[in-house]
Specification:
The complex is a heterodimer of chains A (476) and B (271). Chain A is α/β, with parallel strands linked by helices and 476 residues long. Among the domains of chain A are: 256 residues, 3-Layer(aba) Sandwich (Rossmann fold), CATH 3.40.50.10420; 53 residues, no CATH class. Helices cover 52% and strands 11% of the residues of chain A. In chain A, α9 crosses α10. The termini of chain A are far apart. In chain A, 48% of the residues are buried. Chain B has 271 residues and is of the alpha/beta class. Chain B contains 14 helices and eight strands. In chain B, the strands form two sheets. Chain B has a four-stranded parallel β-sheet, with helices on both faces. A four-stranded parallel β-sheet of chain B has the order 6-5-7-8. In chain B, α7 packs across α9. The N terminus of chain B is likely disordered. The chains are: A alpha/beta (476), B alpha/beta (271).
């Protein structure tokens, strides 16, 4: 996927004026947060589970090598194969090789953000393999040559009209606005693909070390058909998805569904453990797990280690007022919202992704809903520190900040500056109580007035009131 | 009027007022209202004149080193006070961040921890620390309350201002939709991303005006300047004030962004 993160400002401006997008975002804001809140209210132990989930992920990350090797051993024991991929290129090549050895023409795909991260579809197509997305949202996006704008509801930026349009155009059917009819139409198109596919590719929500299993959770059941019908099942996932045991996995499933959609449990929870055994009625002949690193192992032991706890529930973006204003595409790459603002700079570089950790008010809502308590604002601040260290922040801004911080360290100068600023603004405002514009082009007064100071600083007035008495606190 | 002070020393708790830059520069009356409330609660208030800013502008811009220097100044300024109290959840929240700016071997690390343990936002201080039974002047208006992010999520301030407003005769609180959603101020955010900030503050003013309240209250001047500025631009009448102005009975000045003329006109209308 083309990196458009440097254009964040322009993209967000366009998004703010996109009427249809804003309508879709309104539905999101009214939907997921309320459902999550209701689900949490029904579960008194929710906060305790969050603590447990945080601690268990911390433990797993601290022993990542151990659990990954255990996972590989158990995948192999059940007849599957693990392919280690250092980066996107290695992962793409591994998957293509599997497809080629199965002589695959078409592959069905379950929803996978990791496959977006490595731009798998384009690569397969370039190499003569046709990928078919089977998640309804992803299917719609593939028809539109569009990309996900949300990690669990990829087509959340679209409205019913958009779906009606693209279905009638691409399917050559009569246009309908009936959601049930549209669903049926997609089902009919996809059923053929499920049966005809040579390889099925899915992601994994978790990898279970003790059994060598992967699990996907979906609400459509498309994942099951994707991984059960073709002869070959490929799981593309990342090293941070490993959990020690099946029981541990259930802890995360309980949190994931509630945090994501407010469901008690996702509709389909499908475990894959190796290829079909002789006594099994169905299942693939081959089972491959492509385990991607792509810089994640480098995050261990750094300020960004906590990000590896992320279970991709999307609660952070569902509750984020910035995401809610501009939607996912404005972020300019695969992972939007607060989790993306922390992860994307690691994956594509802070030089390109600098806007993302800056475009936050640090309101802290993301952290307050994160099921594994990732301190997202703190890590966005760490990215700003990296930017500052590397002199990537705009020169004018750095200069202004430098001057200001010199004043802030010198109380007398600071008093003088405060007095001067207060007086200037007060004078400029006249008797109006506010300023409609400022001498320099200003982001504040573009959209709102600047309330005028009351006049005089508190420190001056206080000093006057105290009659210039010597006040040196707490040291008598 | 003076309450029994809840001081470990048994005498009037000694409070150092952290004025905050915005109050110092834009709205001194918020500082005086805070002092009045503290004195009503039986505290002795001093204002160290070496204080400047809490350091959020540098901290949130990734300049840790300058932030640590600013923090040293704040720690020195408030040395020895039993409590440090300010009319801002955001700035007091920042004081709570100081320990992580220093290496554990730096003496300022333990001093920062000590400061954090003594530092409180005003409504939280009056409610959670002093527990003062204040008798407050009446204020016959319908108000709505914006929960500023740092106070709410870093310091757990939600019930405290409402509890105190409950002691003001005549106040009717009408909660707005999404009272806990960010107003879009975010310090440098509103300057760096003005369009997104505008959308956020627009949502906020829509929710606030929908309550048909007379006054929008909050505990952080940054957010209040943002919301008041937007309401004025939209031509809305909804007044904006810091909650301490109402609690201290100091609403005899124009509201935030209001001219003297408008203020007098409103007074005449009420009379």
């Amino acid at each position: 996927m083309e990196i458009k993160t440097p254009e964040f400002k322009a993209s967000s401006r366009i998004a703010l004026e996109d009427v249809s997008l804003q309508k879709a975002l309104g539905n999101l804001r009214d939907g997921f947060p309320q459902k999550r809140a209701a689900a949490v209210a029904r579960m008194p132990e929710f906060e305790t589970l969050r603590d447990q989930a945080r601690d268990l992920k911390n433990h797993t990350i601290e022993h990542l090598d151990y659990y990954l090797e255990q996972f590989e051993t158990n995948v192999t024991k059940h007849g599957g194969q693990v392919h280690w991929a250092r980066d996107g290129q290695q992962a793409r090549e591994a998957i293509l090789k599997i497809c080629q050895s199965a002589d695959a023409k078409t592959v069905t795909k379950g929803k996978s953000m990791v496959s977006e991260e490595i731009a798998l579809n384009d690569y397969l197509e370039e190499n003569g393999v046709q990928p078919v997305e089977t998640d309804l949202g992803e299917y719609i996006l593939q028809l539109r040559e569009d990309h996900p704008s949300h990690i669990i509801a990829p087509a959340i930026h679209l409205n019913l009209d958009d779906v009606s349009d693209i279905f009638s155009k691409k399917h050559g059917t009569e246009r309908t606005d009936d959601p049930a009819a549209l669903m049926q139409e997609a089902r009919e198109m996809l059923r053929k693909q499920f049966v005809g596919a040579d390889v099925g590719i899915t992601g994994a929500n978790f990898c279970v070390a003790e059994t060598g299993s992967t699990i996907i959770v979906t609400n459509e059941g498309n994942g099951d058909l994707t991984q059960t019908l073709p002869k070959v099942h490929v799981v593309i996932t990342t090293i941070d998805k490993v959990v020690p045991t099946l029981e541990d996995m259930t802890l995360y499933l309980r949190l994931l569904a509630r945090s994501a959609t407010g469901q008690e449990f996702t509709v389909y929870n499908t475990l894959s453990t190796g290829p079909r055994r002789e006594e099994d009625q169905d299942g693939p002949d081959e089972f491959h797990v492509v385990l991607l690193d792509n810089g994640r192992s480098e995050m261990v032991g750094t300020d960004f280690q906590d990000m590896l706890r992320c279970i991709r529930c999307s609660a952070c973006m569902n509750h984020c007022p910035v995401y809610g204003s501009v939607g996912g595409h404005a972020y300019g790459w695969v992972y939007p919202g607060p989790m993306g603002s922390v992860l994307t700079p690691k994956l594509i570089g802070i030089d390109k992704a600098g806007h993302l950790p800056n475009a936050s008010t640090f309101c802290g809502t993301c952290e307050s809903v994160c099921p594994v308590r990732i301190p997202l604002p703190k890590m966005m601040r760490h990215w700003r520190e990296r930017e500052f260290e590397k002199h990537l922040s705009p020169t004018g801004f750095r200069f202004g900040l430098g001057v200001w911080s010199q004043f802030a360290r010198r109380p007398k100068l600071y008093r003088w500056l405060a007095k001067l600023s207060s007086l200037s603004l007060k004078t400029l405002s006249g008797k109006k109580g506010r300023l409609k514009s400022l001498p320099l082009k200003n982001g504040w007064t573009a959209w709102r007035d600047l309330p005028a100071p009351q006049g005089g600083t508190f420190m001056d007035q206080w000093k006057k009131e105290q009659g210039n008495k010597q006040h040196k606190g707490g040291q008598q | 009027m003076t309450a029994t002070p809840n001081s470990p020393t048994g005498r009037a708790p000694q409070v150092g007022l952290f004025v905050t830059c915005l109050v110092d520069m834009f709205r001194p009356s918020v500082g005086f209202a805070t002092v009045k409330l503290l004195e009503m609660a039986g505290c002795r208030v001093e204002v160290p004149d070496t204080q400047t800013c809490c350091g959020q502008p540098t901290y949130n811009s990734g300049d840790r080193r300058s932030t640590a220097e600013i923090a040293r100044g704040v720690i020195d300024s408030f040395d020895g006070y039993e409590y440090v109290v300010g009319p801002s959840g955001s700035c007091i929240g920042m004081l709570h961040e100081y320990p992580q700016l220093f290496d554990k071997t730096d003496p300022y690390h333990s001093r920062a921890l000590d400061l954090a343990a003594r530092a409180f936002e005003i409504t939280s201080f009056l409610t959670d620390v002093i527990g003062a039974d204040l008798s407050l002047e009446s204020y016959s208006k319908k108000v709505t309350y914006h929960d500023s992010c740092a106070g709410l999520r870093e310091l757990g301030i939600k019930k405290q201002p409402r509890h105190l407003l409950g002691k003001v005769d005549g106040v009717e609180i009408e909660e707005m939709e999404e009272a806990e959603t960010c107003c879009g101020f975010g310090g440098t955010f509103c300057i760096k991303y003005p369009d997104i900030s505008n959308r956020m503050v627009g949502n906020k003013t829509k929710n606030a005006t929908a309550t048909k309240a007379d006054v929008l209250l909050g505990g952080d001047l940054g957010c209040l300047l943002n919301m008041a500025g937007k309401l004025k631009r939209e031509g809305e009448k909804l007044e904006v004030r810091h909650v301490v102005e109402v609690l201290a009975g100091m609403t005899d000045t124009p509201a935030i962004g209001q001219s003297v003329e408008e203020f007098n006109y409103e007074l005449a209308q009420e009379a």
